[in-house]
Amino acid sequence: DDAYITFRFLDQWVAGNGLVYNVGERVEGYSNFLWIVLLAPGHALGLDPVWQAKGLGLALSIGTLALVWRFTRGWDHRWVSVLLLAAHPSFGAWAVGGLETPLFTLLLTGAVLSFVHEERTEQGWWSAPLFVLSGLARPEGLFFCGVLYTWRLIALLRTGTGRRHDWQRGVLVVSLALAHVCWRMSYYGDLLPNTVHAKSMG
Prior knowledge:
- By secondary structure, this protein is mainly alpha-helical.
- It has helices at residues 2-14, 33-44, 49-71, 79-87, 89-95, 101-121, 127-137, 141-159, 164-188, 194-199.
- It is built from 10 helices and no strands.
């Protein structure tokens, strides 16, 4: 049923009625903005959203396995990591579940692995846009971003030595996330999606 909520917003958007569930009611009843954006071109071309979502989810899940394979380069028996992830029942089920989970998994995995690489090499900023994109796929993506960047901030305060990429990452995260919040406020008139209010009992 959650997938079909997304498809309803997708139908309305492609039909020119805006990102709404019902015409004339601007309520953000989804929490997977980026997933809708990715499905929109195919839906506009007449592709079945169910099969499109399943196919895209499978492709993104394979992408996550590829990321894990690349990250474990140089490890002994690196194939075990990929095999264990691929064999996990939840990973397989959500790969073709029609929801944004494979997209979120790929982006969050990419963001965390980028962050680890940036800390090792002391340069780079790709984790920032990847974290923001994961937050556009599912709101909790920004929570994980906050945890890692707070850890980094504490380390900076202890040592007193910042690096250029620390500021680049911070500026990117704040500016990109703020841009989406501003759009949400102007379009829906609310700081948070309606799903947050509904699931927190108001």
